[in-house]
What we know:
This protein is of the alpha/beta class. The chain has helices spanning 11-22, 59-64, 81-102, 125-140, and strands at 2-6, 28-33, 44-48, 67-70, 107-111, 145-148.
Amino acid sequence: xxxxxxxxxxxxxxxxxxxxxxxxxxxxxxxxxxxxxxxxxxxxxxxxxxxxxxxxxxxxxxxxxxxxxxxxxxxxxxxxxxxxxxxxxxxxxxxxxxxxxxxxxxxxxxxxxxxxxxxxxxxxxxxxxxxxxxxxxxxxxxxxxxxxxxxxxxxxxx
Length: 158
């Protein structure tokens, strides 16, 4: 299996990379990232990408992948509400649409979160935007779409 991972340099994505390396059924990991990964391994290929609203030129990569785990995200405490919407919703939906056009058979896993509000009425920006993103992803037409809602993700203790 060839797996694409976004947000691979972040807290969740870097752990997904570590776990994917332990799985023998995953033969190649493509990390779509803005900066180099902290981990190096023969299974990992990093594709540097800076505009997460535009995926021109990446369709050949999407065509070759069996699955994508979307881990790209940010805490609502780290950015403005506008930036949060772009990172949470716009980036994920733009990527998912581009992947689906290039490869309708791709499996897509979206790292959402506990409390995601599919009614899109929550006063909590994180919950409202994760719910809105889930709704948009459900409309794309993936045959295999998973919405993962972890309760909380804590940094590794050193």
